[in-house]
Amino acid sequence: MSRQALAQAGRWRRLPLIETPRLRWGLAAGLAVYLVLALSTIDVNWARVAEGASRGLNFLAAFTQPDFVSRRGDILDGILESLTMTLTSTVIGVALAVPVGLGAARNIAPWPIYYLCRGIITVSRTFQEIIIAILFVVMFGFGPLAGMITLAFATIGFMAKLLAEDIEDLDWRQVEAVRATGASWWQTMNHAVQPQVMPRLIGLSMYRLDINFRESAVIGIVGAGGIGATLNTSISRYEYDTAAAILLIIIAIVLLCEYSSSHIRRWTQ
Amino acid sequence: MPVSTTPQGTPTWRLRTTRAQWLGYLAWLAGACLFLLCWKLISDNTMWVFVEDAGRQGSDLISRMLPPRWEIAHRLWQPMWDTLNIATLGTLLGIAMAFPVAFLAARNTTPHPLVRSAALVVIVSSRSINSLIWAMLLVTILGPGVLAGIIAIALRSIGFVGKLLYEAIEEIHPTPVEAISATGAGRLQVMSYGVLPQVMPAFAGISVYRWDINIRESTVLGLVGAGGIGLQLNAAINSLAWNQVSVIFVMIFATVLASEWISARVRHAII
Amino acid sequence: MLTLSQVTKRYPTGDRALTDIDLTLPRGQVMALIGPSGAGKSTLIRCVNRLVEPTSGSIRLEETELTRLSGNALRRARRAMAMIFQEYALVDRLTVMENVLSGRLGYVGFWRSFLRRYPADDIAEAFRLLERVGLPHAMDKRADALSGGQRQRVGIARALIQRPRLLLVDEPTASLDPKTSRQIMRLIRELCAERELAAIINIHDVALAQQFADRIVGLRAGEIVFDGKPGELDAETLTTIYGEEEWDTRVQEEEAPSAAASAAPAPATPLTLATGGAR
């Protein structure tokens, strides 16, 4: 019976999302099998969990009375180092991302440069900051310099990709209009491309600043400077009140960052 | 864009007024000073001897990585499977929790402003704290293993998915919602008929996007003991077996590229 | 059956949208509400089904005082009043059938509606209504695949499946072309007659209002300034409602130059407006 006739008789069902029944049931079965397989890989040591549960409660309790004082020196140094790393890496990363982004835009870059720049972007985006940090720590030794280079490298991939996408779909008529006046390549960039991508570039830089700060809090785990080392120590020593203090500071700074970046974005537009 | 007249009477044009121009210079100067100050702090904390050595260290590292020891690849399938599971199950758990939080956080669907603030706090805390930090905490609580990784990924995903989803909810057309309320529908019915169909595509897109990011993040959770390929990576690095590290890198690279491709295709199909 | 007395709406910004509205609507009457943009037409009908909360006054639907209802009582009251919207207000990503069935939400429970397990009677009725508005073949199409006129028909079917006693219609023709507008107005008119429905129709187009309504109420700056039969509407009253303008189109056509030159209101001759004149 057709769906219309069924509806007339008061029997109607919602259209299924996937029309072919075989595909529909196949997908559902595949999903179920995957879930069973994946869930079976989780092996939980319940004795260990029971033991840890009290620590979990301790940790939650620590948030009600975070301890900012007893490791004040370490926290202050770490936060300061994180902030300096964040700022310098963002500035350097964005500065380097601009040429890479220009090179990775299909509509303005010649082929060999395009592939080179796309390669840089892919490598930088694929690996987690922490993996890159490990390599740079081996090369440059422990300390904030390795962290800064790590974050700058990650910034290049992030910013250059988005910048390239922006340039690829900019309004081409404006570029042609400027070119028609007889402007050189640099003049075209300055008068036709820059005004179109600038507001978003500023917005993205602010966003990346925020991300870099959050990342700077973890790359310390592998020795690349910042608050991460202090956090790592306090957690592995079960000093949850200090850890809670550090986490609260991170949350506060991220909030501040977000609040001010929305202001700066409004101001630049 | 002021046009002024010189004493000779010829009009000149400048992009900005003199005052604005000086303010601009001043801002740049302040920025440069801040940057230099930060740079000095970093440089003070750096052993420059090591840095001078960096080129040699780097080439040394590469020579140790090559050629990769492909023989160990067969030992890596199991941890890679764990990594995929951490990312996928973590994403599923995360979006399941983010979904209600986003509805509580969106201005037009929240039951009460106080509830909204609470939901926003949840989103911000989850967003501010990297999944690696969550993993560190959870490993001390649950013990090392895949479960800690899954929960760490889920906790981090709440903020990301929640934020993007509540922004999507705030941008829906209000008229269908009004129309559904006018039929005498209850609160939940208004959500399921008026709001849900409008945000579903955004929700699916955001979830797939987050899954892609989570694959990337779950590759390193093992560094702090939360399961997956990161455990192998950590072991290889600690034993300075760089030719094994390079094999792991290649596998991570391939997996991440594949997941990015899948996610881009799925998002393209949805939108 | 519907009685408004002393209804006032003041927005938090301090703007007075409605001032002391008194209005009684008997069963089966189709009333057109006309007035300039911002006169409070939309606010008035939204106060009736409480999409907008009136600041003071009383609104009674038969025996029920609407202004004090909340929760389930408000839901039950809203079932009796169906609304038809300007931009159709369909849920674009749902199918036509689902949109029509959403008119039953006030009657079925959450899980039934969530799983789309509507009672057989509702489904059969939904299909009958789709046939009545001429769209049975579009049942499984998504709402955003329809044209404007078709969407408004779906909107009407959704309203009628509520089995309402009162229709609240907000600018039903504002986004439609003249021909479709007439068809939609005629459909609403016929359906009201078939089911003995009372209706309040907000409408910009005075000619349409005259053609299809039993009664016309003119609103200006939140106050009722005219209430009468369509035939009683003349240039003078239109001037009180909308302000000064050259109302008589016939005069305009014949003496265009002089009419354009003088800003004086047209003489108060018995009026035949655009469509009336054309026929």
TrEMBL record, chain A:
Keywords: Cell membrane, Membrane, Transmembrane, Transmembrane helix, Transport. It is found in: Cell membrane. It comes from the Bacteria. It is a multi-pass membrane protein. Residues 79-261 form the ABC transmembrane type-1 domain. The keyword Membrane applies. GO terms for molecular function: ABC-type phosphonate transporter activity. One of its GO terms (cellular component) is plasma membrane. InterPro entries: MetI-like, MetI-like_sf, PhnE/PtxC. Gene3D superfamilies: MetI-like (1.10.3720.10). The chain crosses the membrane at residues 23-42, 90-109, 130-160, 242-259. SUPFAM superfamilies: MetI-like. The keyword Membrane applies. CDD domains: TM_PBP2. Belongs to the binding-protein-dependent transport system permease family. NCBIfam families: PhnE. This is Phosphonate transport system permease protein. It comes from Halomonas ventosae. The lineage of its organism: Bacteria, Pseudomonadati, Pseudomonadota, Gammaproteobacteria, Oceanospirillales.
